[in-house]
Amino acid sequence: MLWRCVACGAFYEKHLLVCTFCWRDGQIAPCSRRQGANIDLVPAISNARSLARMGWNRLKHPGVYEGLVIGAGALLLVSGFPGAGKSSWACILLDAIIGAVLLVAAEEGLGPSLAARLARCGIKRPDFGIIARASVDAVVEYALANKVVAIVIDSVQEASWSAQDLRHLLAVVPTLDLVIGVQQVTKEGAPAGLMALQHEADVQVTVEDMRWSLKKSRYQDLADVGGEVLPARDLDLSAVEREVPHVLAPVRVLPDGE
Length: 258
Description:
Layout: E1 2-5, E2 11-12, E3 28-31, H1 48-56, E4 74-80, H2 86-96, E5 101-105, H3 112-120, E6 128-131, H4 136-146, E7 150-154, H5 156-159, H6 163-172, E8 178-184, H7 196-200, E9 203-208, E10 211-217, E11 226-228
């Protein structure tokens, strides 16, 4: 059984009378883990050559956050307060990666809020896939069919994906080089959930007031790495093409009398 504070969103493995993140009492209630998936039964299999590749191969993201070093096969965690810019940061990085990519919109779904964010970030790529309300198996099926190289899970709490789930996703999709987990934090700035995500992540970025900084990395020093979330460019939102993520059948309007 998994428990969650309804006031701040913190997760616990057992019930507590008082939340140790927001210090409110009587707010911790049971919540379900994600449903079991077929992919859970698929073992993670690799070889020495593929694992050695993780040690030297670096993922390219030209023109965006160029001071950030990301290794192939990395699990990247980005966290911040609501509205700080963490989802925009993740989308901008995802858009800069060459190859098919996927955004799992577990928190917002396909709606005006997500459309406005993509417009602000200037994202219009046809191979920037978006999937919502998807099971783990559906995400894996899409990634395999489209040879996805990078995935954003926004957010990992709403999708109920654990650190082990994210790492396993990297192992079972051969083309996948990066998984980015967007993590919510409490009003005190602590991660809303168990610390396993911080421990498992290869790179951790924090975002505050539309500025990002590097908090943890297995690939580089942390000093002087960060900057603005939005690239230094002016976006004319009125000129952004209105692209529909799915095709609807045309509706024929009949004249009067027909």
